[in-house]
C-alpha cells in the first residue's frame, strides 16, 4: 500500500506565478489535510477536505489560496500570484474517515518563490 | 529510501502508567528528530533533538536521541487522560525537509 504521495517534491516559482501542489492520499483514504511549515516554525493547519467537499478551511489565507479534492484524482492546493512569503514546505496528510483518525503524512512539497 | 518507523502503532494504558514510544529512522543527511502531539488539527511541537544522549524534558514528557542506533524514544510518566493523542515522530534532513512516521495512537483510560 503506497503511502501519501505529493508532487512535485520541489517547486520553484517567480513572484506572480501560480503554484499547484498535488497530494494523492493513501488508498482507501477519503480525507485530506494540508499543512504549511514555515522555516523554524511548527506545522500550521490550512484546510481539511473530503472528496468534493471542503470541511474546514479556517487555516487558509482568504486570498490567493484555494484547495480542492475532486471525485477523481489528487487533491490540489493552488496558490495564485505567489509572493516570497509563500516559500515554505507544504505537507499533505490523509486519513480513512474522520479527523479523529490517525493522519498519514506525505513527504511534502518545498515551494521556493524567487 | 528515507523512512521513519514508529512503534507501537497504538497503545492503551491507564492513568498513572508510564509509557515509552519508539521512533527509528533512516534518513540521509539527517539534521534532527522532532516529536509532535496531534489531537485535533495541526500537530503541536513537543521536542527537537539534534544531539545524542541529551535528554529533553518538559513536565512529564521526556525524549532522547541515539544517533548511533538511529532511534529516539518519547517517555510520558504518570499519564493522564489528556495525554490521549497521536504522537508523531519526524526526521528532518537536508534543508528542513521532513519525513513523518505513521504515528502512535495513545489512549489513556481513567
Summarize the structure.
The complex is a heterodimer of chains A (114) and B (110). Chain A is mainly beta and 114 residues long. Chain A has strands spanning 5-7, 10-13, 19-24, 31-37, 43-50, 53-56, 65-68, 75-79, 88-95, 104-105, 109-113.
List strands and helices in order, with pairings.
The complex is a heterodimer of chains A (114) and B (110).
Chain A: E1 5-7, E2 10-13, E3 19-24, E4 31-37, E5 43-50, E6 53-56, E7 65-68, E8 75-79, E9 88-95, E10 104-105, E11 109-113
Parallel strand pairs in A: 2-11
Antiparallel strand pairs in A: 1-3, 3-8, 4-5, 4-9, 5-6, 7-8, 9-10, 9-11
Chain B: E1 3-7, E2 10-14, E3 19-26, E4 30-38, E5 44-49, E6 56-58, E7 61-66, E8 71-76, E9 85-93, E10 97-100, E11 104-109
Parallel strand pairs in B: 2-11
Antiparallel strand pairs in B: 1-3, 3-8, 4-5, 4-9, 6-7, 7-8, 9-10, 9-11
Keywords:
heterodimer; A: 114 residues; mainly beta; 7-stranded mixed sheet; 4-stranded antiparallel sheet; 11 strands; B: 110 residues; 6-stranded mixed sheet; 5-stranded antiparallel sheet; 61% strand
Characterization of this structure:
The complex is a heterodimer of chains A (114) and B (110). By secondary structure, chain A is mainly beta. Chain A contains no helices and 11 strands. Chain A is globular, with a radius of gyration of 13 Å. By secondary structure, chain B is mostly beta strands. In chain B, the strands form 2 sheets. In chain B, strands 2, 4, 5, 9, 10 and 11 form a 6-stranded mixed beta sheet that branches. A 5-stranded antiparallel beta sheet of chain B has the order 1-3-8-7-6, with no helix packed on it. In chain B, strand 9 (85-93) and strand 10 form a beta hairpin. Chain B starts with a strand and ends with a strand. The interface between A and B is medium-sized, with 20 and 20 residues.
Span of the ends, CA to CA of chain B:
41 Å
Instruction: Report the biggest beta sheet of chain B as strand number plus sense, adding barrel if it closes.
Output: 6 strands, mixed
Q: Strand-residue fraction of chain B?
A: over 45%
The two chains with the largest interface, and their residue counts, are: A-B, 20 and 20 residues
Number of strands of chain A: 11
Strand content of the residues of chain A, in percent?
over 45%
Largest sheet of chain A: 7 strands, mixed
Helix % of chain A is under 10%
- The computed structural class of chain A is mainly beta
Oligomer description: heterodimer
**Overall residue-averaged pLDDT value of chain A:** 89
Total beta strands of chain B: 11
Give the proportion of residues in helices of chain B: under 10%
What is the radius of gyration of chain A? 13 Å
The mean pLDDT of chain B is 90
Amino acid at each position: 500500500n503506497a503511502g501519501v504521495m505529493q508532487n512535485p517534491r520541489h517547486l520553484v516559482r517567480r513572484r506572480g506565478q501560480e503554484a499547484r501542489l498535488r497530494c494523492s492520499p493513501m488508498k482507501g483514504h477519503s480525507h485530506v489535510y494540508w499543512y504549511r511549515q514555515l522555516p523554524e516554525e511548527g506545522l500550521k493547519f490550512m484546510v481539511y477536505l473530503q472528496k468534493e467537499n471542503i470541511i474546514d478551511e479556517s487555516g487558509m489565507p482568504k486570498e490567493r489560496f484555494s484547495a480542492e479534492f475532486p471525485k477523481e484524482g489528487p487533491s490540489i492546493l493552488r496558490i495564485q500570484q505567489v509572493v516570497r512569503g509563500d516559500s515554505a514546505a507544504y505537507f499533505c496528510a490523509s486519513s480513512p474517515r474522520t479527523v479523529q483518525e490517525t493522519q498519514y503524512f506525505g513527504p511534502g512539497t518545498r515551494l521556493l518563490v524567487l | 529510501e528515507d523512512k521513519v518507523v514508529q512503534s507501537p502503532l497504538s497503545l492503551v494504558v491507564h492513568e498513572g502508567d508510564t509509557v515509552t514510544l519508539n521512533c527509528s529512522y533512516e534518513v540521509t543527511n539527517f539534521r534532527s528528530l522532532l516529536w509532535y502531539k496531534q489531537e485535533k488539527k495541526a500537530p503541536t511541537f513537543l521536542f527537537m533533538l539534534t544531539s545524542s544522549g541529551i535528554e529533553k524534558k518538559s513536565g512529564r514528557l521526556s525524549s532522547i536521541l541515539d544517533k548511533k542506533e538511529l532511534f529516539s524514544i518519547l517517555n510520558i510518566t504518570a499519564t493522564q487522560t489528556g495525554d490521549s493523542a497521536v504522537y508523531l515522530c519526524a526526521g528532518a534532513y537536508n534543508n528542513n525537509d521532513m519525513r513523518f512516521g505513521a504515528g502512535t495512537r495513545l489512549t489513556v483510560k481513567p
